[in-house]
Structure formats: structure tokens, C-alpha cells
Amino acid sequence: MTQESDRRIKIAVQKSGRLTEHSLDLLVRCGLLYSRGRDQLICYGENMPVDVLLMRDDDIPGLVQEGVCDLGFVGRNIVEERRLALLAEHTPVEFEQIVTLGFGHCRLSFGVPETMDFADIRSLEGMRIATTYPAIVADFLRREELAATLVKFSGAVEIAPSLGKADVICDLVSSGSTMRAHHLREVATILDSEAVLIARPAAERTQHAWIERLLQRLQGVLQVKESKYIMLHAPRSALPRIAQLLPGSEAPTIIPLEGREDRVAVHAVCRENVFWETLEQLKEVGASSMLVLPVEKMLF
Ligand code: ATP
Ligand code: MG
């Protein structure tokens, strides 16, 4: 019998779309080497017991729910839609969002024809709303105690009003240009979204060492993106002020300088980017010889 720890991990990633490149890039930065053939739906990990399944993004929460995949990279909008749909049919939800990934930002908003009088969300009462996110919109309407008709679309929602299929839409927006191009006005946001990592519930997840290992590396990779290593010389007396100015640094290393009682070298990892303004402020309190370096890897 194969042990749980010998099993290969399966990770679902969008096959081709807005999230694909960033998701695969994160896995590569976690150290995964994989081979991907043309039109191949599975990438086999060469140096870890990890395989990547390339799927439609809508199917990803379902794959984790059914236990086909251990982890999935997908937009919060899709996760939330599936979660609410499962709850509505009284099915236990067997996935949870464990990390936010910092890309794929967008929002789910109502859009109304430019010519429509729209005071506030109460104006939605009695309207026909076209959307690909019926569970999220239904949940919103219920909480706001609004009665409206949902018209389900699987794509191209923005053309529903001009086709006479709906009065308003509820759809994903990032820049807002698609709505504008269809003479729609964005009037209210009901969900802010970005790409997230979902996993099986915690009790199951921790049974596989490689899942934990991958998650730890992922935390490191996400942290590293913004992190900088900063080195500078400063008067010993300015250390408290310098610690305040260094963004997101904890416990900087203080090193004595040969022949200088009053000045020390300070080395610190900053968990946020270090901007010119910060360097100028550090200079004002007496810092000199400042170097800011990118951080390649981190493990906590
Ligand atoms: P699939 O074929 O996988 O079903 P799709 O057409 O549904 O692809 P994409 O358009 O690639 O999906 O969007 C994937 C995800 O990217 C969305 O679910 C959302 O989380 C995010 N996203 C970011 N910006 C936008 C945007 N302007 N419009 C739509 N989705 C966006
Ligand atoms: Mg989709």
C-alpha cells in the first residue's frame, strides 16, 4: 500500500488565461521544475512529487472539493461563487482559501446603462440582473433585502442590456474600460478579488509533508517580492530613529566600525520596498554609505 507521504501532490492552475503565467511562475520560484508538452493538460514535476493540472478556472474549486487536487490557484471571485453555491445546496465546503497571492486584482461590480437613473443599490429592486456569479449576487441581494431576477450568463455579460436580456449587469471589472465601451456605468462593488491559493481543509493538508513544504516556500517567495536587504552606516545615537524609518524590518544587525566609537554599520531585511524618500530621511538622521539589495530567497 502506498503511504500518504509517497503520493504525488496535484495542483490545479488555470490552463490559459489571466492567472496562468503568474501562477506557474510562483511554482517555479518555489523550486518546481516541470515538463509541459504542447496541449498537455498535466505538467509532471521533475524534482518534486508534484503535478500541475491545467484546467478552466471555474473547475478549480470543484477539483479541490472532490479531492482530485490538493491545491488550486484561482480568483477569489470563483472561490466565493462556488462556496456560496455549495452552501445554498447544503453541501459541506471542503476547500479553504489559505494564501492571497497579490495578482489578478479585480472587483465584482454592478454596471447600469449610462442613461439609467440610479440613485443607490435600492434602485436594483425588481430589476433583471445579468451575471456569471449568480450565487454571489443572490447572497448580496438577500443581505440587502432586495428582490431582483437573476439572468445567468456564462460570458459576455456586458452585452446583456443591449440585447434586452437584462436591465443591469454584475461583472468583473479591473480598469472599467469594458463597461465603458458598452455604455455601462459602474455603480457599486460587491466583492474585491485577487488570485488566492485554495487547499483541502487543514486536517488533511498537514498529512503530506510536501504540501507543507511547498506552502512554506510560497510564503517565502511572496515575502521576497517586496523585501530588500539594506546596509548603511549611522551614528549610534540615531539607531532608534533609524529602526523606525526602516520599513517592516525587525531586529536589525548592528556591527561596530573599526576605530569609530560613535558610528556603527546597520544591516536589516525590510519586508517592504525601500523608496528614495526613505533613503533621504535616513540621510537626514545621519546615515551614510547606504546600499539596498534585492533578496533572492527567504525561509522562516
Ligand atoms: P477560463 O477559460 O479558465 O474559464 P476565463 O475567461 O473564465 O478563463 P480569465 O478572463 O482568464 O478567465 O480570468 C481569470 C480570472 O482573472 C478571473 O476569474 C478573475 O479572478 C481575474 N481577473 C482579473 N482582472 C479581470 C478582469 N478585468 N476581467 C475578468 N477577470 C479578471
Ligand atoms: Mg472561467
Structural account:
- With about 300 residues, this protein is α+β, with helices and mostly antiparallel strands.
- About 30% of the residues lie in helices and about 30% in strands.
- The protein has helices spanning about 20-30, 60-65, 75-90, 135-145, 160-165, 175-180, 200-205, 210-225, 240-245, 275-285; strands spanning about 10-15, 35, 40-45, 50-55, 70-75, 95-100, 105-115, 130, 150, 170-175, 185-195, 195-200, 230-235, 255, 260-270, 290-295.
- The strands form three sheets. Strands 2-3-4-1-5-12-6 form a seven-stranded mixed sheet.
- A hairpin with a 2-residue loop joins strand 14 (about 255) and strand 15.
- Helix 3 (about 75-90) packs across helix 4 (about 135-145).
- The mean pLDDT is about 95.
- Bound molecules: adenosine-5'-triphosphate (ATP) and magnesium ion.
- Magnesium ion binds near residues 56, 57 and 58.
Rough outline: globular
Bound molecules: adenosine-5'-triphosphate, magnesium ion
Please report the distance between the alpha carbons of the first and last residues: 34 Å
Query: What does the largest sheet look like?
Result: 7 strands, mixed
Assign the structural class, choosing from mainly alpha, mainly beta, alpha/beta, alpha+beta, or little secondary structure: alpha+beta
Find the count of extended strands (DSSP E, 2+ residues).
Answer: 16
Total count of helical runs of at least 4 residues: 10
Which percent bin holds the helix content?
25-40%
Unreliable parts: none
